[in-house]
Automatic annotation (TrEMBL):
Keywords: Carbohydrate metabolism, Lyase. CDD domains: KDPG_aldolase (cd00452). The lineage of its organism: Bacteria, Bacillati, Actinomycetota, Actinomycetes, Kitasatosporales. It comes from the Bacteria. Pathway: Carbohydrate acid metabolism. InterPro entries: Aldlse_KDPG_KHG (IPR000887), Aldolase_TIM (IPR013785), KDPG/KHG_AS_2 (IPR031338). The keyword Lyase applies. This is Bifunctional 4-hydroxy-2-oxoglutarate aldolase/2-dehydro-3-deoxy-phosphogluconate aldolase. The keyword Chloroplast does not apply. It comes from Streptomyces bugieae.
């Protein structure tokens, strides 16, 4: 399954930014076991590249393991070497350009129409509307008026309650960090993570 198909099928990208590398790895595995296979591991987390390597080794070549907060070309190259096959950026820049050059799936951070046009010209896989909380579902709906066919993924302040509103506004998926992951990537309760995962899965299956 290619990334665009996986994104539209699963409708959720889980975002992990942990202070504990072992806990972050356990979080990735718990999410995969809970049926949430699209995972972004932020490079700003503890030993993120090591977590990506371990996750790739454990989950195999078919898994979608993303590297997030990719800012530079070096970030993109190191992430790919560690096994990331999805690159997520907070905005436009060298990290995104290098990821596209390498042929990696890309989720590019945009907020304004000009950024949407620039990202689309690069040939990105999907558009990360970030921070989505700056305008909410109404802003996404307005932004989609000139770009009705483009795949938008709101990220930032998305919880289970508002996710449906983003879907109703035309989002193909949502990206969710702390409302889903909570403190699991810092050593918190994985059973609570599994409960939240089930709640989000239910929203995404509607």
């Amino acid at each position: 399954m290619d990334f665009s198909t996986a994104l539209r099928t699963e409708r959720l990208v889980a975002i992990i930014r942990g202070s504990d590398a072992e806990a972050s790895f356990r979080t990735v595995m718990a999410l995969a076991e809970a049926g949430l296979p699209l995972v972004e591991i932020s490079l700003s987390g503890k030993d993120a590249l090591g977590v990506i390597r371990r996750a790739r080794a454990e989950l195999g070549d078919a898994a979608w393991i993303g590297a997030g907060t990719v800012l530079t070309g070096g970030d993109a190259r190191r992430a790919a070497e560690a096994g990331a096959n999805l690159i997520v950026t907070p905005g436009l820049g060298a990290g995104l350009e290098e990821s596209v050059r390498q042929g990696l799936a890309t989720l590019a951070g945009v907020l304004t129409p000009s950024e949407v046009i620039a990202a689309e010209a690069l040939g990105v896989s999907a558009l990360k509307l970030f921070p989505a909380s700056a305008g909410g579902p109404a802003y996404l709906q307005a932004l989609r008026a000139p770009f009705p066919e483009l795949p938008f993924v709101p990220v930032g302040g998305v919880d289970a309650a508002i996710a449906q509103a983003y879907f109703d506004a035309g989002a193909v998926a949502v990206g969710v960090g702390s409302p889903l992951v909570g403190d699991a990537a810092d050593g918190g309760d994985l059973d609570e993570l599994r409960k939240r995962a089930a709640e989000f899965r239910a929203v995404c299956a509607r």
